[in-house]
Design brief:
globular, 57% helix, single chain, DUF3140, 110 residues, DUF3140 domain-containing protein, mainly alpha
């Protein structure tokens, strides 16, 4: 993906799909990984994809790598699939919300 227009569109789609701030996502990843007796180091909390999304949120568009672009596409596709009105889950689907929040999308945010 080297075309500037495609990159601009992906950047916008990604930031529309990822509606949590980097601080919110970092906090969520730490909470999600915390156990009763152990807690990972803050920079290692959460899934690999969640950590990658967090890293992307802290970058400028000009600093993106091919790997970043791949993750951005995956996140946009996953969020679009999960939030498609045809696939809309029943209210209170906490597991679905938590999965999406791991990618930086909180379905309860407007």
């Amino acid at each position: 993906m080297t075309d500037a227009l495609e990159m601009d569109a992906l950047w916008e789609d990604f930031h529309r799909a990822v509606n949590m701030t980097s601080a919110e996502l970092a906090a969520w990843l730490r909470v999600g990984d915390a156990g009763e007796t152990t807690e990972p180091l803050p920079d290692r909390a959460g899934s690999e994809t969640g950590q990658h999304v967090l890293a992307i949120l802290q970058k400028r568009r000009t600093d993106l790598t091919e790997d970043d672009l791949r993750v951005m596409e995956e996140v946009v596709d996953t969020v679009q699939d999960e939030t498609d009105p045809e696939n809309e889950p029943l209210a209170g689907d906490t597991a679905r919300r938590h999965r999406l929040m791991t990618l930086g999308h909180d379905p309860l945010k407007g």
